[in-house]
Amino acid sequence: MPFAFLDTEFTSLTAQARLISLALVVPDGPEFDVELPQNWDLADCSDFVIEVVLPQLDPVQYGMSVPDARDALWQFLSRFDEEVIVCCDAPLWDWEFFSQLAYRHGKWPANVRNAPRNSYDLILDLARAIPEEQVPHHALLDARLAARHYRIATSRG
Questions:
Q1: Which overall architecture, per CATH, does domain 3-156 show?
Q2: Which Gene3D superfamilies match (predicted)?
Protein backbone atom coordinates (compact mmCIF):
# COMPACT_ATOMS: atom_id res chain seq x y z
CA MET A 1 0.00 0.00 0.00
CA PRO A 2 1.52 3.31 -1.02
CA PHE A 3 2.01 6.21 1.34
CA ALA A 4 1.17 9.61 -0.11
CA PHE A 5 2.70 12.53 1.76
CA LEU A 6 0.28 15.44 1.99
CA ASP A 7 0.93 19.10 2.59
CA THR A 8 -1.33 22.11 2.35
CA GLU A 9 -1.02 25.85 2.50
CA PHE A 10 -3.94 27.87 3.80
CA THR A 11 -4.84 31.44 4.64
CA SER A 12 -4.38 31.52 8.42
CA LEU A 13 -4.29 29.47 11.59
CA THR A 14 -7.93 30.23 12.39
CA ALA A 15 -11.23 28.39 12.18
CA GLN A 16 -12.00 30.46 9.06
CA ALA A 17 -8.88 29.26 7.22
CA ARG A 18 -9.27 28.68 3.48
CA LEU A 19 -7.26 26.24 1.39
CA ILE A 20 -4.70 27.87 -0.91
CA SER A 21 -2.81 24.85 -2.23
CA LEU A 22 -2.51 21.10 -1.72
CA ALA A 23 0.08 18.55 -2.78
CA LEU A 24 0.51 14.79 -2.50
CA VAL A 25 3.84 13.06 -3.12
CA VAL A 26 4.28 9.30 -3.28
CA PRO A 27 7.91 8.37 -2.52
CA ASP A 28 9.53 7.30 -5.79
CA GLY A 29 6.17 7.81 -7.46
CA PRO A 30 3.77 10.38 -8.86
CA GLU A 31 2.99 13.82 -7.50
CA PHE A 32 -0.18 15.89 -7.35
CA ASP A 33 -0.10 19.66 -6.96
CA VAL A 34 -2.98 22.12 -7.14
CA GLU A 35 -3.54 25.77 -6.27
CA LEU A 36 -6.99 27.21 -5.65
CA PRO A 37 -6.80 30.94 -6.44
CA GLN A 38 -10.60 31.34 -6.44
CA ASN A 39 -10.96 29.75 -2.99
CA TRP A 40 -9.51 32.56 -0.90
CA ASP A 41 -9.11 36.34 -0.69
CA LEU A 42 -6.01 38.31 0.22
CA ALA A 43 -7.92 39.81 3.15
CA ASP A 44 -8.22 36.28 4.61
CA CYS A 45 -4.44 35.77 4.68
CA SER A 46 -2.16 36.19 7.65
CA ASP A 47 0.94 38.36 7.28
CA PHE A 48 3.06 35.19 7.22
CA VAL A 49 1.07 33.76 4.32
CA ILE A 50 1.27 37.04 2.41
CA GLU A 51 5.03 37.32 2.92
CA VAL A 52 6.11 33.67 2.60
CA VAL A 53 3.47 31.49 0.92
CA LEU A 54 1.82 33.66 -1.73
CA PRO A 55 5.03 34.74 -3.55
CA GLN A 56 5.78 31.06 -4.27
CA LEU A 57 2.48 30.33 -6.00
CA ASP A 58 2.11 29.80 -9.74
CA PRO A 59 -1.65 29.95 -10.40
CA VAL A 60 -1.13 30.11 -14.17
CA GLN A 61 0.45 26.65 -14.13
CA TYR A 62 -1.25 25.01 -11.13
CA GLY A 63 -4.43 27.02 -10.54
CA MET A 64 -7.83 25.33 -10.74
CA SER A 65 -11.34 25.84 -9.51
CA VAL A 66 -12.34 23.67 -6.56
CA PRO A 67 -14.55 21.38 -8.72
CA ASP A 68 -11.74 20.93 -11.26
CA ALA A 69 -9.22 20.29 -8.47
CA ARG A 70 -11.53 17.69 -6.94
CA ASP A 71 -11.83 15.89 -10.28
CA ALA A 72 -8.06 16.08 -10.81
CA LEU A 73 -7.45 14.65 -7.33
CA TRP A 74 -9.78 11.73 -8.02
CA GLN A 75 -8.05 11.11 -11.33
CA PHE A 76 -4.66 11.14 -9.57
CA LEU A 77 -5.84 8.74 -6.86
CA SER A 78 -7.49 6.38 -9.36
CA ARG A 79 -4.07 5.30 -10.69
CA PHE A 80 -3.41 3.28 -7.53
CA ASP A 81 -4.62 -0.32 -7.36
CA GLU A 82 -3.72 -0.63 -3.68
CA GLU A 83 -5.11 1.32 -0.75
CA VAL A 84 -3.46 4.73 -0.47
CA ILE A 85 -2.52 5.92 3.01
CA VAL A 86 -2.29 9.69 3.26
CA CYS A 87 0.43 10.89 5.64
CA CYS A 88 0.74 14.41 6.99
CA ASP A 89 2.59 16.24 9.72
CA ALA A 90 -0.36 18.46 10.69
CA PRO A 91 -3.42 16.19 10.56
CA LEU A 92 -5.77 18.70 12.16
CA TRP A 93 -5.19 21.09 9.27
CA ASP A 94 -3.94 19.08 6.31
CA TRP A 95 -6.36 16.18 6.66
CA GLU A 96 -9.37 18.46 7.01
CA PHE A 97 -8.49 20.30 3.79
CA PHE A 98 -7.69 17.04 1.98
CA SER A 99 -11.04 15.60 3.06
CA GLN A 100 -12.92 18.64 1.80
CA LEU A 101 -11.32 18.18 -1.61
CA ALA A 102 -11.48 14.37 -1.66
CA TYR A 103 -15.23 14.05 -1.06
CA ARG A 104 -16.94 14.22 -4.46
CA HIS A 105 -20.70 13.98 -4.86
CA GLY A 106 -20.85 12.73 -1.26
CA LYS A 107 -18.43 9.88 -1.92
CA TRP A 108 -14.96 9.12 -0.63
CA PRO A 109 -12.34 7.60 -3.00
CA ALA A 110 -12.67 3.84 -2.52
CA ASN A 111 -8.92 3.22 -2.59
CA VAL A 112 -7.99 5.87 0.01
CA ARG A 113 -7.93 5.06 3.72
CA ASN A 114 -10.37 7.39 5.43
CA ALA A 115 -7.98 8.37 8.21
CA PRO A 116 -4.57 10.02 8.04
CA ARG A 117 -1.27 8.60 9.18
CA ASN A 118 0.86 11.06 11.10
CA SER A 119 4.19 11.57 9.33
CA TYR A 120 5.89 11.75 12.72
CA ASP A 121 4.90 8.11 13.32
CA LEU A 122 6.73 7.08 10.13
CA ILE A 123 9.69 9.42 10.41
CA LEU A 124 10.54 9.54 14.09
CA ASP A 125 13.07 12.33 13.76
CA LEU A 126 11.09 14.38 11.22
CA ALA A 127 11.28 17.60 13.26
CA ARG A 128 15.05 17.25 13.50
CA ALA A 129 15.40 16.10 9.88
CA ILE A 130 13.54 19.16 8.60
CA PRO A 131 14.18 22.13 10.89
CA GLU A 132 11.49 24.82 10.71
CA GLU A 133 13.84 27.30 9.06
CA GLN A 134 14.34 24.84 6.17
CA VAL A 135 10.64 24.31 5.50
CA PRO A 136 9.79 26.14 2.25
CA HIS A 137 6.08 26.57 3.11
CA HIS A 138 5.11 25.52 -0.40
CA ALA A 139 2.76 22.52 -0.45
CA LEU A 140 4.59 20.55 -3.15
CA LEU A 141 8.08 21.28 -1.83
CA ASP A 142 7.06 20.43 1.75
CA ALA A 143 5.43 17.16 0.67
CA ARG A 144 8.55 16.29 -1.34
CA LEU A 145 10.70 16.92 1.75
CA ALA A 146 8.60 14.58 3.87
CA ALA A 147 8.63 11.88 1.17
CA ARG A 148 12.40 12.24 0.79
CA HIS A 149 12.99 11.87 4.53
CA TYR A 150 10.68 8.86 4.61
CA ARG A 151 12.79 7.23 1.85
CA ILE A 152 15.96 8.01 3.80
CA ALA A 153 14.50 6.66 7.06
CA THR A 154 13.27 3.43 5.47
CA SER A 155 16.48 2.82 3.52
CA ARG A 156 18.45 2.70 6.80
CA GLY A 157 16.45 -0.22 8.14
A1: 2-Layer Sandwich (3.30)
A2: Ribonuclease H-like superfamily/Ribonuclease H (3.30.420.10)
